[in-house]
Amino acid sequence: MATIPVIQIRNIRKYFKGVKAVDGIDLSIGEAEFLALLGPNGAGKTTLVEMIEGLQKPDSGEILLMNRHWKGNETYLRRFLGISLQETRFIDKLTTTETLRLFASFYGIGEKRIDEVLDLIRLQDKKKAYTVNLSGGQRQRLALGIALMNSPAVLLLDEPTSGLDPNSRREIWDILLALKKNQHTTMILTTHYMEEASFLCDKIVIMDNGKILAEGTLEELLTRNQSDEIIEFNLDGDPADLNLNNDNWLKKMNWDPDHKKVTLFVTEILQALPHVLDKTGSDKYKIMGLECRKMTLDDLFISLTGRKLTD
Amino acid sequence: MRRNPLIQLILIHFREFVREPAIIFWSIIFPVAMAWVLGIAFSRQSELVQQVVFIENPREQYPLFREFLEDSKEINKEIYGENITCFEKTITSDKLGKTSFRFISTDWDHGILLLKRGQVNLIMKEYPDSLEYFFDPVNPQAKMLFVMLSSALNNDRLVYESAKISPLTQTGNRYIDFLIPGLLAFGAMNSLLWGISYALIEMRSKKLMRRMVATPMKRSEFLISFFVARLSIAIIEAAILWTFAYFYFRITLQGSFLALATIFLAGNIAFSGLAVLISSRTANSRVGTGLINVVTMPMMILSGIFFSYHNFPDFAIPVIQKMPLTMMADSIRAVFIEGSGMVQVAGNSAVLTGLGIFCFLIGLKIYKWY
What we know:
Chain A is α/β, with parallel strands linked by helices. Chain A has helices at 45-52, 74-78, 96-107, 111-120, 136-148, 166-182, 194-200, 218-224, 269-280, 297-305; strands at 5-16, 19-30, 34-38, 60-65, 81-84, 154-158, 186-191, 203-208, 211-216, 229-235, 250-256, 261-266, 287-294.
């Protein structure tokens, strides 16, 4: 893994009418690194990415892109940046090729690259179609094509698969995986899909309420935080009466009163399970749906925030 | 092959225009708004002062008319820089209601000028035994005025038999000669304000502007592309209208073509600047539509495109005359039917160009690109 920092973020903050959208974030992203910003809606992912893109100014802190600040370097930096916004609609009655040609002209790029990009985003058969007639997935691929037009050194993708059906999402993933394999592009992708972050990215940053809660590779995140094994069951009663908190095999317990679900984060299932069965074995408690499994990103997010990513 | 970004940006507008003409939103509201304006204009007819040019004959006066003028109010009024004697009289008739007349006492040449400028629709000349009326017989306002006037003079009895009517149908004196230059200015205003403002606001609301600004695209080229494309479209629209007017109504240009081109360009600069200012902040197309209407509607109603703004109260006229559309329409009209040249349109052209640049700079200063 290359370690040259292409993007350096130092203690940046951004507030909107008293709401802390981004609250003191430090982050460093190396060359050819593929980083996922994972978090629920309102976590501050888009604001953070738009500040990196130079589309929003931080209230305080510093952002360096390829060792340059945005101020005074905008024209230079834009040449190396590829951007796919969370939501972009195109000019309805422009064809796919005309749309790509328009953006290519801003970079002084010729027809050959437009053809390459059409291949890359698999829209050759739609090159004469008006953008208004493209499907959601095709439009998202066109947005990706525009972002790739200048063969960017840094590619910033804001929820590129949000709202797409599984097939369309998979098509975007395939393009991104091909990019990761063949190029030396530094990529940041924001998402609220766990599987997307874990499938595509080298490094995952979990955000909520404008702060970074955890960062690292998938393995690092799962082992560093609390535990790597889970015991989960539904309980007809109050888990506080079980006195599980006093036991040293237990790292953490979560209780979801709405679904009457207990989630135990344990060091080792084989060691913990007899204790759980012993405590819950009396007639006083009725347990159902007992499940033992490895910890996932979803569990990690719940353990960090106490809520689900989709909440 | 590398493409020029400015040309690509300009091509967007032409492609949109050709592929979706319905984008010219005003074509939808135009008929409705026009019906509304005409409705207002005609429903308030009775409250308006009907202006008539009166060519006096001091030696041989027409007794019936002098008798009619006996209880009128004599005032001095400044009209286009000249102090002119006017006679004002309001009469109430059972059949025609309340009617106010203003008889502007002047000579023939000045009377024709007032008619060309739309300030009056009718000229009357006095003879010892009758009156002679001069007006365009296809101008409904003029015909109506003739009927009202002859009725008033004859105790509600129409006098087609005794009065002599001389149709003024030469080129330059007709209602259509008044209307076409106004429509040229009106078309330019609509094309520029709707074509630029609405398109910019829509691009902002679609986040397309944000996406384009996130590239090395020059923002000046982005805005220039709008001006070039809409100016070209406005020229094409004006050329079509003028060609039609030439072949169908035999409307010819009396003044300098250079003066016409100058005032047309200046008007386009003014409306482009206004368009950039209107679209500088909002990302909501419904708010944008409201803002454009706020600017265009008053000018559409007041600027004397379809009817002379001299029908409005006197206190409003100096304000109306300073509206961009009025300045453009009056100057185009002066070139078309009064034979004006560069000297006559230079003032209005300079003001319109200055206004456009001023609005553009303010708009740019507060422009919301992201």
